[in-house]
Write a structure and sequence with these properties.
The chain has ten helices and 16 strands. It is an alpha/beta fold. Strands 4-1-5-6-7-8-11-12 form an eight-stranded mixed sheet. A four-stranded parallel sheet has the order 13-14-15-16, with helices on both faces. Helix 4 packs parallel to helix 9 and helix 9 runs antiparallel to helix 10. The two termini are 31 Å apart.
């Protein structure tokens, strides 16, 4: 039988309704979640590790590096076939990509959680955990990096997004689609990831600013934020990479001061490019020295830039890390 390490960190999957608090609060540790998941012992031998009950919106880079270290240690054990992280869904699309960038083992690494608490009808935590363990134990998912598994779908960490605040099927891969699904206990792989971004580091550059271009926005906000001494900036541009020219000029000054600037799109799919050459158009951003982020949206581009800076990558290294790694 396969052996799967599970790192429990909290999240909605661990929560119950507290009438006095007026909402869901952390309540269930890893043992309680395992006990609520019938059939788990028939899928794999579980090696649990509890890291507390932290809402996903509370994670820091320091905590994520600690979880990544636990995962690395577990996967270096030759008796462990794969690993699962159980966490809150609010930031799964960011944290899974964080783990994906650092994940070196060919063994499957899966992140899962729940959209409904243990007090709600249709509590989806046990089903998601069972599917995640199936995927972590599946040889077919070797060399696929970090994956997100919820509602029966298997998503690559570099594309998956939380598309709805509360829907059970919130997680989607809007650019290339899921790589497979779990059907009646069977892991079905529809396509494979043939290339992905990787970086080796134990620290992140901070702070990295994330700014979204909107109507009538110029460079004033960035100029004010320069007081925070950012080590990097990510701009979510409109459409295919276009902004007010004032924002470009503010970023040009930042780049002149040695601060790397990454350009992506605020749309949930697609990527920034060089198709427009009017002032503030994507072509003028590239000409100014901005790094294009491929299909990575703002939050993922920020993760990649922070880890790349933490790794000490130069401009060429950052460009290589942010660029799309190759065809699916």
């Amino acid at each position: 039988m396969s052996r799967v390490a599970i790192v429990f960190t909290g999240g909605t999957i661990s929560m119950r309704l507290d009438p006095e608090a007026g909402g869901n609060v952390p309540a269930l540790d890893g043992a309680a979640i395992v006990a609520a998941t019938p059939g788990l012992a028939e899928v794999a031998e579980i090696v649990p590790l509890d890291r507390g009950l932290t809402p996903a919106s509370h994670f820091t880079f320091k905590q994520l590096f600690a979880i990544a270290a636990d995962l690395r240690a577990a996967l270096e054990d030759p008796t462990i076939d794969g690993a699962v992280v159980v966490q809150g869904t609010d930031t799964i699309d960011e944290t899974a990509f964080f783990f994906d960038l650092l994940h070196e083992s060919p063994k499957p690494l899966v992140v899962t959680g729940a959209m409904r608490s243990a007090s709600e009808t249709g509590y989806d935590g046990p089903g998601n955990l069972l599917d995640a363990v199936r995927c972590a134990a599946a040889p077919a998912l070797a060399d696929q990096g970090c994956l997100v598994v919820l509602a029966g779908s298997i998503h690559p960490a570099d594309d998956v997004l939380k598309m709805h605040a509360s829907s059970i099927t919130t997680f989607q891969s809007p650019n290339l689609g899921p790589i497979g699904h779990v059907e009646r206990g069977r892991v079905v792989v529809a396509r494979r990831r043939t290339a992905r971004r990787r970086v080796t580091t134990d620290r992140a550059g901070e702070p990295v600013l994330l700014l979204t271009a909107v109507v009538a926005s110029d460079g004033a906000l960035l100029e004010a934020a320069r007081a925070l001494d950012p080590v990097g900036v990510v701009i979510e541009a409109t459409g295919a990479g276009n902004t007010n020219p004032g924002l470009l000029e503010a970023c040009r000054r930042a780049m002149d001061d040695g601060i790397p600037v990454v350009l992506t799109t605020r749309t949930p799919s697609g990527r920034a490019g060089t198709g427009y050459a009017f002032p503030g158009g994507g072509a003028t951003w590239a000409q100014a020295g901005a790094i294009l982020a491929g299909y990575l949206g703002g939050p993922k581009a920020r993760i990649a830039l922070a880890l790349g800076i933490g790794a000490g990558l130069d401009s060429a290294g950052l460009r290589a890390l942010l660029a799309d790694p190759g065809p699916p």
